[in-house]
Design goal:
The chain is α/β, with parallel strands linked by helices. The chain is built from 17 helices and 11 strands. About 45% of the residues are buried.
Length: about 475
């Protein structure tokens, strides 16, 4: 009979730990090795399965093997295959293996990294990783930042920082300016930071889906005339819908003249700053007052790895700096994440960035990002030559958008429906997963090349499927006489 003392012992013996680790690693390696053969989008018709899985907390533990069987055979496949080579939907996140090793080290050594005094060397590695990102982006040495769970939390901290610096306690008059193509997290961040929805101005974009600076100037002037306090403009270094890069230099010029905080949402596109041939496209990025980054996009790390950089690090520290009787005295010589972000209890997010970059080096990242850009440009050119395809947004970085039209698809409604069906049919074939976006009244198909596993051969197969399904849709839509002509 098991005694209460035995039940209270939660440790495993070294041999048990090795056996459990080997069992998991065997499954993981087999899973990664089979990614190229897995459907790009798993069977998502899982409502019945989800209902069947509802259960009370187990009173007794289970052996590991049956749990791994269920996870890898039944549960994980019922999802988007986001780490696969055919994942061209939304904005891919790759999940490089070195980051998993870093997380294993972090989770098992389980060091507290909320304050510098608890793990000074580990936090120096995190500070190094943040500094590497700062150097890549061309920001000055005054810049400070933090790793977050993603772009949404990075943006929230940026908005709060700008609000604290430029509005103080008078929040109600403050106004924020975004384009119609801004990520939804920006308006959500403003609301969480105390800026009411009626103080967020959504501005029109030009024919290339970029924020219009003339519209920004008009909106700011109108708000000031009404007694309000414009304080923040948010631009995009690669929008989610079309991949557009706003005129960052022009916006930076305007923000500097008018005393506005300029935040750049670079969650998707900022890491392309590493690619020399894209410096002109991203010109002005290094002038941002704050910058959102998503290493789980442009650095191919696992989801849950975001970052924020703030040009005036003192402003970020002023927002978050706090102490308590149970904490050590504050110090300013070394990086202390609790003084630059909202978390005290935290894991070691910087370790996965540090270890991955140490193993790969900057040159391999530069080469990988350059390849993704070149692949997207090539794929867009190929697709633009397919009958019925209209390229609405060529790739500024690695994302392009298009729609379908032709005989029988004269109305916007018909074109939208055909484009949506094109995305669905291509995805259903399994080789690639593509997604679309509603942009104004038009539904656009999208292709985003950002998985580190997406290479030329997979794109060629995806393009073949797009061509074939385009032809079928056009044939189905064509008037009866045209079909037999």
């Amino acid at each position: 009979m098991t005694s209460p003392l035995d039940l209270a012992d939660l440790d495993f013996q070294p041999a048990e730990l090795r056996a459990m680790g080997d069992a998991v690693l065997e499954r993981v390696v087999a899973h990664l090795a089979s990614l190229a053969e897995q459907p790009s989008c798993g069977d998502l018709d899982a409502e019945q399965l989800c209902r069947s899985l509802r259960e009370p907390a187990p009173e007794a533990g289970s052996p590991l093997e049956p749990l791994l069987d269920a996870l890898f055979d039944d549960y994980i496949p019922r999802s988007f295959t986001t780490p696969g080579p055919g994942y061209l939907a939304y904005i891919p996140g790759g999940g490089v293996f070195p980051a998993a090793l870093a997380d294993l080290i972090s989770n098992t050594t389980n060091r507290f990294t909320g304050i510098w005094q608890s793990a000074p060397v580990l936090l120096q590695l995190e500070a190094n990783a943040l500094d590497w990102l700062r150097e890549w982006m061309g920001l000055p040495s005054t810049t400070r930042g933090l790793f977050t769970t993603g772009g949404s939390m990075a943006t929230f901290n940026a908005v709060a920082c700008a609000r604290e610096r430029l509005l103080g306690a008078e929040l109600r008059p403050g106004t924020v300016y975004v384009s119609s193509q801004a990520h939804h997290s920006v308006t959500k961040a403003a609301r969480l930071a105390g800026i009411a929805a009626d103080r967020v101005r959504t501005l029109p974009v030009d024919a290339a889906y970029r924020l219009r600076v003339d519209a920004l100037a008009s909106a700011v002037a109108a708000d000031r005339a009404a007694g309000l306090r414009p304080f923040l403009v948010v631009s995009s270094a690669g929008t989610t819908n079309t991949g557009a890069v706003d005129p960052l230099d022009e916006i930076a010029d305007y923000a500097a003249r008018e005393g506005l905080w300029h935040h750049v949402d670079g969650a998707y596109g900022a890491f392309f700053q590493l690619v020399p041939e894209l410096h002109a496209t991203l010109s002005g990025l290094s002038r941002a007052d704050s910058l959102t980054l998503d290493p789980h996009k442009g650095m191919f790390l696992p989801y849950g790895t975001g970052a924020l950089l703030v040009r005036d690090g003192a402003a970020l520290r002023a927002l978050h700096s706090a102490s308590a009787g149970y904490l050590p005295e504050l110090q300013e010589q070394f990086y202390d994440p609790s003084q630059y972000g909202p978390d005290l209890s935290r894991d070691a997010p910087g370790l996965r960035v540090w270890l991955t970059l140490k193993l790969y080096g900057t040159a391999r990242y530069r080469a990988a990002l350059s390849e993704k850009h070149a692949l997207a440009v090539w794929a867009a050119e190929q697709l633009a030559g397919v009958p019925g395809v209209v390229l609405d947004a060529p790739p500024a970085l690695s994302l392009f958008a298009f729609h379908l039209e032709g005989p029988g698809l004269e109305s916007l409604e018909q074109q939208n429906l055909a484009t949506r069906r094109l995305m669905e049919r291509v995805t259903a074939r399994g080789a690639v997963m593509v997604s679309g976006a509603q942009v104004g009244e038009r539904y656009l198909g999208r292709v985003c090349v950002l998985s580190f596993r997406t290479r030329r051969a997979r794109l060629e197969l995806g393009l073949q499927h797009l061509r074939e399904e385009c032809a079928r849709l056009l044939a189905e839509a064509a008037p009866t006489g045209a079909r037999h002509a």
